[in-house]
Amino acid sequence: MAKLWSYSLCLLATLCMVQAKPYHEAKHRALLRTGYIYFPGGGYYRLAYKRPIIWAEARRNCQQEGASLAVVNSQQEAENLRTLYLDYGPNNADLQFFASNTTQVPVANATVHIGIHDIFIEGEYLTVRSEPLIATGFVRWKPGFPIGDEQNNCGAFDTAKYILDGPCDAKLPYICEIPEAA
Ligand SMILES: [Ca+2]
Ligand SMILES: [Ca+2]
């Protein structure tokens, strides 16, 4: 009986310890392990560039890991996405590795899929969370954009901190986002 009690207490203590560990801390570590980069005050972002894919596939990939295609909500977030690309994109690790025997010049500005589109109604831009673009807080079109026709319905981010529209079947890198509060 004493053995059973001590076993029960031990189990209870273990459960309490697990409970005491803040949930967000475990989640934080798990996200970092799966390739997410944390921007304090912003959230978690994962840049995928090694295999460029079409917008719908990028959207699904983000959804499948509990994220969504990134939506730019502020100038600061645009800055963070640019930093993400410059620090963790192909300009860095991959090109540096081959730097000694390549003539390829790192490209400072790149275009990546983000979570805005006008697939349903031409010109009516929505986020992947079905909010109107105007409600995002960041509507800074790249000069010359939006193209604004039926052939260009998927949103992208130019790392020079602009949004633009393009063909949904363009194969691009993409960024998944998990807001900090989520
Ligand atoms: Ca966002
Ligand atoms: Ca369009």
From TrEMBL:
<dbReference type="InterPro" id="IPR016186">
    <property type="entry name" value="C-type_lectin-like/link_sf"/>
</dbReference>
<keyword id="KW-0732">Signal</keyword>
<dbReference type="InterPro" id="IPR016187">
    <property type="entry name" value="CTDL_fold"/>
</dbReference>
<feature type="signal peptide">
    <location>
        <begin position="1"/>
        <end position="20"/>
    </location>
</feature>
<protein>
    <recommendedName>
        <fullName>C-type lectin domain-containing protein</fullName>
    </recommendedName>
</protein>
<dbReference type="InterPro" id="IPR001304">
    <property type="entry name" value="C-type_lectin-like"/>
</dbReference>
<dbReference type="InterPro" id="IPR050111">
    <property type="entry name" value="C-type_lectin/snaclec_domain"/>
</dbReference>
<feature type="domain" description="C-type lectin">
    <location>
        <begin position="39"/>
        <end position="177"/>
    </location>
</feature>
<dbReference type="Pfam" id="PF00059">
    <property type="entry name" value="Lectin_C"/>
</dbReference>
